[in-house]
Amino acid sequence: MKKYLFSIITCFLIFSNDVQSQNIQSPDEFLGYELGTKFSRHHKVIDYFTYISTNSNQVVLEKYGETNEGRPLFLSFISSEENIRNLEIIRNQNLKKTGLIEEISNLSTTIVWLSYNVHGNEASSSEASMLTLYKLLTEKKDWLKNTVVIIDPCLNPDGRDRYVNWYNQTKSEPFNVNPEVTEHNEPWPGGRPNHYLFDLNRDWMWATQVETQQRIKIYNKWMPHIHVDFHEQFINNPYYFAPGAEPFHEIITDWQREFQTEIGKNNAKYFDQNGWRYFTKESFDLFYPSYGDSYPTFMGAIGMTYEQAGHGKAGLGITTENNTILTLKDRIEHHTTTGLSTVEVASNNAKKIIEEFGKFFNPSENLETNYILNGNLDKIKNLKNLLQKHEILSYQPEEKSIKVFEYNTKKNKILKLTSNDLVITTNQPKGKMVKVLFEPNAKLSDSVTYDITAWNLGFAYGLNSYSSKAKINPNNNVINNPFYKNEINNKVYAYLAKWNEISDAQFLSSLLKVGCNVRFSKKEFSNEGKSYEKGTLIIMKGENMHLTNFDETITELAYKLDKKLTNVSSGFVTSGPDFGSESISLIKPKKVAVLSGEGTSSLSFGEIWHFFETQLKYPLHIINTKDLKKTNFNKYDILILPDGYEADKNIFETLTTYATNGGTIISIGRSLNNFADKEGFNLKSKKDTTETDKNLTEKLVPYSLKERKSVSKAITGSIFKSTIDNTHPLAFGYRNSYYSLKLSSNAFNFIEKGETIGYFVEDATNIAGFAGYEALKKVPNSLLFGIEYKGRGQLIYMVDNPLFRSFWENGKLFFANAIFLN
Fold first, then answer.
1. Shared domain check, 659 and 607
2. 672 touches 797 (CB < 8 A)
3. How far is CA 571 from CA 489, 525, 542, 546, 551, in A?
4. For the residues of 576-638, what is the DSSP string, one character each?
5. 313-329 burial string, b = 16+ CB within 10 Å, else e?
6. 658, 637 in Cβ contact below 8 A?
7. d(CA 368, CA 256)
8. SS3 letters for 87-100?
9. Domain end marker among 434, 468, 502
10. 372 with 465: CB under 8 angstroms?
11. Alpha carbons 587 and 537: distance in angstroms, whole number
């Protein structure tokens, strides 16, 4: 009787589950229109995922954050009913495989994470996410018995809605397939980036953006076995899927390479059946660690990019080079096919995937390396915070002397460790990622790459870096005090604050915004037994009598930013300038403008905008280039020209007049070309004086080798050591050398009539990353940072962008100096 009753219940549950799957609405039914006939705004996509989660026992929807513009970020977990009931157990069992939880794991369920629409105008993928969800629950349920599928339907809702809203407002009815019409040509800045115009697909490791910061928290709680990042490329390109292209970073295992191929073969099977064009093993490499394919790969997953033709150009349909129409329906179908194909391969190989995933995290006997960093304690704290976001362990060492390899000199030496140093070891679960981030120079198997080739975090944060094979124990006696408690002294003459890290500039910004008079010292000095560097901030009580509760205000602002203040009772110094000297200069609040809009790099503008709003927290006036002719530039103390801006003749004359009349122009990257080699300006392009180009054999390069020949003239994100004149206010807070991330081969001579503040010496060469041999010839004796005086004003030239992707932390103080101290 019990057996008979159990059979009835079992049949009922199976029947109920089938009925439930059959009864859920398809995306077409729920949305009220056929997928591919219009673009769905973000909230519609989320509405569908919410509907499914409330009507299926096989789906859990979790909100993990919000964008800058308040749009929600969600993950959908899809699996069998039993797996959904045991979702937390599966997650913990998986973390045991990584060693992040030190217990034996009996995991038998593989985890596939599908990420859609990281670039907002690559909008077919969010549409495909809805169809993929539906098909998994209605047609592919067997795969879910041993697989958890995690779907992020839209990583970049702000960018997606920027594109979708524009397209829905602009398109013809019916849609026009002519590539020349408005609906196929987005206005600046396009839907690709997020609110601050950052490329979120380059931000996975650096986590400068709120979307990334919230995503990696939950990503590292799950650590999936397979991760796919869905993209779109230009309209005439075939579909791209793995395996990836060289260079592969050397930490990528043979298994990861081989299994990419297995997934690719399965994708190819379906594309072959349908006669769809595709390619593999080209263009998209796995080297730079901050992509949606490389970051998961370096965290043990099979990380892959899938690229469908379309992009923001395609709209609902567009004529391609072979006179066929590429439709949104086509794009959705292709992305849905590869998504489902990937889940199929995962389900069919679950046991092997889980086994190999666990092996990735087993420390090799010969791989243990310790990376040691020392220097500015605020910079160490900032780096430690970044590592904590990714659950990468670091610690302060016991004090002893060890043999190390020093990155600055590229020599071995004996280093005395202190409790202020930071140690990051590869002997931890995420040790392979540690190697990627801190090794002196990653091995590059192919010079043709998709992105920058150097990113060492020691250089990026301005810290001294070392590596060692010696065993280094943690110092368990260190007590970390997270905040300075500055004492209020009502008899204080002045408060002093250091100036050598970007949060010092944020402190200055907060002082200026409350109306505080602040000065800085142009010379070193000592007072009451302590020495102070150039750039030290001096806040004198006598100059701030207008502030109610002066002492409380200053100390509270310092506390919020964890800034240590020194209070002194006299302006009569032991050595150096007294506080009434002309060398103690008043920092006047600056009205700062930046150009945006057509003609500027949206990425460069976004970096500046983000820097002012989220780090400096200082007012910025954004002026669109279409409004330049009616702009009164005399209202602004500083005008910033983002990378890529090219002025026409009339605007060039306006800029010249602005500088001549006392304005400051900060010119970044390619915007220097506005002034280079122009009459009346001292900025001169550096020419290659070698005879290489005159050599006939060099000109007769075979067609098949021309791409590689062009690479010889390129610099793709390579690190160079520069010399810095730190006696100039533009370089206050720096040592006499600085490691710059050089992003192009553009080079300029030293400033003859002005100041050359940062430069590359005669034997300068790259210390990490790729630089072509032809490009390397122009770097020696070339400019990095300089100032040209023009009438009563000045132009500040920044050849290399110190705000690039907001991850090169050590460059940001140059920008703050240009705003406040120069």
1. yes
2. yes
3. 15, 11, 11, 20, 17
4. S--TTSTTEEEE----EEEEESTTS-HHHHHHHHHIIIIII----EEEEGGGGGG--GGG-SE
5. bbbbbbbbeeeeebbbb
6. no
7. 21
8. HHHHHHHHHHHHCC
9. 468
10. yes
11. 9
Peptide bond into 174 cis (omega under 30): yes
Pairing, β 584-587 against β 518-521: antiparallel
One domain for residues 662 and 573: no
Task: State pLDDT tens for residues 127-156.
Answer: 999 999 999 999 999 999 999 999 999 999
Q: Does 132 lie in the same domain as 256?
A: yes
Burial of 606 by CB count in 10 Å (0-12 exposed, 13-18 middle, 19+ buried)?
buried
Q: Residue 169, exposed/middle/buried by CB under 10 A (0-12, 13-18, 19+)? A: exposed
CB 743 within 8 A of CB 801: yes
**Count of Cβ atoms closer than 10 Å to residue 79 Cβ:** 26
CB 587 within 8 A of CB 519: yes
Q: Are residues 105 and 172 in the same domain?
A: yes
Q: 3-state class of 204 per DSSP?
A: coil
User: Which residues does residue 685 pair with via DSSP β-bridges, in sequence order?
Assistant: 748
For the chain, the helix, strand and coil percentages under 3-state DSSP, each to the nearest 5 = 35, 20, 40
| CA–CA dist 603, 778 (Å, integer) | 26
CA 563 to centroid of chain Cα atoms: 27
Between CA 759 and CA 775 the distance in angstroms is 16
Decide if 466 contacts 544 (C-beta within 8 A): no
Q: What is the pTM of this model?
A: 0.94
Give the pair of three-digit tokens for residue 243.
């395996």
Strand intervals (E) in 649-800: 664-668, 718-724, 737-742, 754-760, 766-768, 782-790, 793-798
Strands 525-527 and 530-532: antiparallel
- Using alpha carbons, select from 683, 611, 679 the residue that is nearest to residue 640: 611
Tokens 């490499």, residue located: 285
- Could you read off the pLDDT of 455-469 as tens digits, one per residue? 999 999 999 999 999
Torsion of CA 557, 559, 564, 567, to 10 degrees: 60
What tokens does 593 get?
Answer: 């403008």
Is pLDDT of 694 > 60? no
**CATH code assigned at 641:** 3.40.50.880
Structure confidence at residue 19 (pLDDT)? 46
Range of the domain at 567: 494-587
Amino acid at 454: A
Q: How far is CA 598 from the centre of its chain?
A: 23
Structure tokens at 95: 């973390």
pLDDT of the residue at 623 = 97
Q: Which tokens hold the place of 169? A: 């407002």
Q: Which residue has the tokens 């506005």?
A: 674
3-state secondary structure of 808: coil
Task: Tell me if 1 is assigned to some domain.
Answer: no
Q: Are 493 and 569 in contact (CB under 8 A)?
A: yes
d(CA 646, CA 37): 39
Specify which residues 718 forms β-bridges with: 742
pLDDT, averaged across the chain: 93
The structural domain count of the chain equals: 4
| Helix count and strand count (H, E) for the chain | 24, 34
The Cα-based distances of 244 to 51, 119, 392 in angstroms read 36, 20, 26
Radius of gyration of the chain (CA): 29
| Distance from the Cα of residue 504 to its chain's centroid | 23
